[in-house]
């Protein structure tokens, strides 16, 4: 089962899985606990589906952005088969769901 494999990969990255947050065409996102950082989000995807060049371009664009509406990126790790992207955890769900529910944002 893919979720079991993801948990193994996350544990190898010293992350403790709390729960699955969602899944899409390229991978799954988990709420995880990271020692020293607390609760964060971690996306697990196959390296073959990860476009590293595009990712690096995006990181350069948001690296120095100080905006409460832009999630902070922490790191990405590759092990030859999987990529784990660690970033800030947003507890309100996806922007699509927030927009559909007309949730007020300060």
TrEMBL record:
Domain Protein kinase: 15-106
Residues annotated to bind ATP: 43
Entries under Gene3D superfamilies matching the protein: Phosphorylase Kinase, domain 1 (3.30.200.20)
Pfam family, one: Pkinase
Keywords: ATP-binding, Nucleotide-binding
PROSITE patterns: PROTEIN_KINASE_ATP, PROTEIN_KINASE_DOM
Cited SUPFAM superfamilies: Protein kinase-like (PK-like) (SSF56112)
Record's protein name: Protein kinase domain-containing protein
Organism per entry: Streblomastix strix
Lineage, broadest ranks: Eukaryota, Metamonada, Preaxostyla, Oxymonadida, Streblomastigidae
